[in-house]
Amino acid sequence: MSKVVTRFAPSPTGHLHIGGARTAIFSWLLARHFGGEFVLRIEDTDLERSRQEYTDSILASMSWLGLDWDGEPVYQSQRFDLYNKYIDQLLEEGKAYWCECTPEEVEAMRETARANGLKPKYNGRCRERGLEAGEGRVVRLKAPLIGKTVFKDLVKGTIAFDNSELDDMIIRRADGSPTYNLAVVVDDATMGVTHVLRGDDHVNNTPKQVMLYEALGLPVPEFGHVPMILGPDRQKLSKRHGAKAVIDYKQTGLLPQALVNYLVRLGWSYGDQEIFGLQELIEKFSTDNLSRSAAGFDPEKLLWINAQYIKKTPDAELAELVRPFLAESGFDGVGAAFLAVAAGMYKERARDLIELAAAMQPVLCADADLPFDEKAVEKALGEEGRGHLAALREAFAACAEFDGHAAHEVLQKYVADKGLKFKAVGPPLRVALLGAMGGPDLSAVMGLLGKERTLARLDRAVAL
Predict the structure, then answer these.
(1) Could you report how far apart the first and last alpha carbons of the chain are, in Å?
(2) Is the pLDDT of residue 144 over 80?
(3) How many CB atoms lie within 10 A of CB 31?
(4) Which tens digit of pLDDT belongs to each residue from 225-253?
(5) What is the C-alpha separation between 59 and 324, in angstroms, rounded?
(6) Helices (DSSP H) in 289-352: which residue ranges?
(7) Arithmetic mean of pLDDT, 307-336
(8) What is the pTM of this model?
(9) Neighbour-count burial of 157, counting CB atoms closer than 10 A to its CB (0-12 exposed, 13-18 middle, 19+ buried)
(10) Residue 159: its pLDDT value, please?
């Protein structure tokens, strides 16, 4: 097999959304699987709607997802001379022609065709008139009038279009700018692209592009059109389904590997496996396993996958990932070692970094500032509960060496000596240390807080 080259070609008219991100991931995986190249092209020919801030956001989103591209990004807005060179070639070879029909005249042609039960299209009036360049004139491709344009889709199988139903499409507008299909064909050919994976909303563009490749004598790449991502209600995906721009997922505490994993599984499978490392995806990815059916976006499933990644992330690494979210709540400057232990204690139940940051706050806040849940206090810190805390406070204070293991031993001995069940002392101790019911292992909490802070929190709870 010759070198595989894939591409991702977003338009900087908005932020990168998950549909585009999934296409980028598929293209990236295909290139990396075969040891080929993945190139990035910014399709910024819409000068009115394209914004540098969106280009920057797209590049940042790609980098955050780990989708590195080969070489420098290519910008269509810088390649108009190249496009016009190929358009001029088609004109010189008689494969394209100048057309002076106005948009209103072309629309009238389409209305006439509709009225006669025919495909609404341009009727070829200027095709053989031999017009030269002129004010308001466009350039059209001479499309074949008979036969079919056929291509084998990597996802959908063989697709055929009757040439009689296709337009003599415009390839240069009246203002001199190239059209989308012409620019894409020239770009893919000159960038050496061998495989084009994209959303199936582009299927109708493909026969037009195949015609252009053939007219220009350029090799036709392999195409694969993946179904769109739908909402849970099987309607077009939108914000109301919980979908966000990729950069927003970073800000809401998702891990990039989790988002990549989830998006890959929306349209690709490898048996029943759900969780894949990035290297594993590269090794196992194949277009043979791309689904022909549209997948439904499920925010809860995404959070579940993210939770699996949080659990698998080493504590020290997770601590640095959660640090910016803690800083937003005023918990900055926490030592790395302390933060790593705290992150490890709380990560089992967190679905995203925001939840993890919120869960960690009881061990991070100053002992005097620990908030108490009123219902938990009422339930656990009655006279009996505070009595157990006072006794435990003295036992902990007597420890020469205090860590999680020592705290556990003291706690077990107290329960055994008093003939108690753990539930008699566990809830009041938990409320005293963490301000509420629920949370990680109490011995681990005391080991993290240390002797001085543990005693301070017990004193405060006893005095309530």
Answers:
(1) 75
(2) yes
(3) 26
(4) 999 998 888 888 877 777 789 999 999 99
(5) 21
(6) 299-312, 315-328, 336-346
(7) 96
(8) 0.91
(9) exposed
(10) 96
Euclidean distance between CA atoms 331 and 353, whole angstroms: 14
Q: How far apart are CA 189 and CA 220, in angstroms?
A: 8
Task: Read off the pLDDT of each residue in 381-390 and give the average, rounded to a whole number.
Answer: 95
Q: Which residues are catalytic?
A: 239
Ordered DSSP codes for 388-434? HHHHHHHHHHT-SS-SHHHHHHHHHHHHHHTT--GGGTHHHHHHHHH
Q: What average pLDDT is seen over the chain? A: 95
∠ at Cα 297 (295, 299), nearest 5°? 155
Instruction: Delineate the domains of the chain, giving CATH numbers in brackets.
Output: 1-74+227-299 (3.40.50.620), 79-226 (3.40.50.620), 313-364 (1.10.8), 368-462 (1.10.10.350)
Torsion angle, alpha carbons of 377, 378, 381, 384, to 10: -170
In sequence order, which residues have a C-beta less than 8 Å from that of residue 69 and are 6 or more positions away?
8, 38, 39, 40, 62
Using CA atoms, how far residue 249 sits from 77, 252, 328, 391, in Å, is: 30, 5, 16, 48
Q: How far apart are CA 44 and CA 13, in angstroms?
A: 8
Which residues lie below 8 Å from residue 122, measured CB to CB, with a gap of 6+? Answer: 99, 101, 106, 109, 110, 140, 167, 168
Angle at 298 between CA 294 and CA 304, to 5 degrees: 130
Task: State how far the alpha carbon of 155 is from the alpha carbons of 151, 152, 197, in Å.
Answer: 12, 9, 9
Among 93, 148, 150, 143, residue whose Cα is nearest residue 121: 143
Structure tokens at 449: 């807080």
Torsional class of 51: left (φ above 0), alpha (ψ -120 to 50), beta (otherwise): beta
- Name the residue with tokens 């074949």: 144
Cβ atoms of 163 and 143 closer than 8 Å:
yes
In the predicted structure, residue 341 carries a pLDDT above the cut 90: yes
**Amino acid symbol at 438:** G
Determine how many CB atoms are found less than 10 A away from the CB of residue 165. 13
pLDDT recorded at residue 327: 96
Task: Quote the pLDDT of residue 232.
Answer: 81
Tokens standing for residue 143: 């499309």
Q: Regarding beta strands 138-141 and 96-99, do their DSSP bridges make them parallel or antiparallel, or are they unpaired?
A: antiparallel
445-256-58-330 Cα dihedral, nearest 10 degrees = 0
Residue 393 in this model has a pLDDT that exceeds 70: yes
CA distances in angstroms from 130 to 139, 143, 176, 299, listed in the order given: 12, 16, 19, 57
Q: Which residues contact 97 (CB under 8 A, 6 or more apart)?
A: 91, 126, 127, 128, 129, 130, 131, 139, 140, 142, 168
Q: What residue type is assigned to position 77 of the chain?
A: S
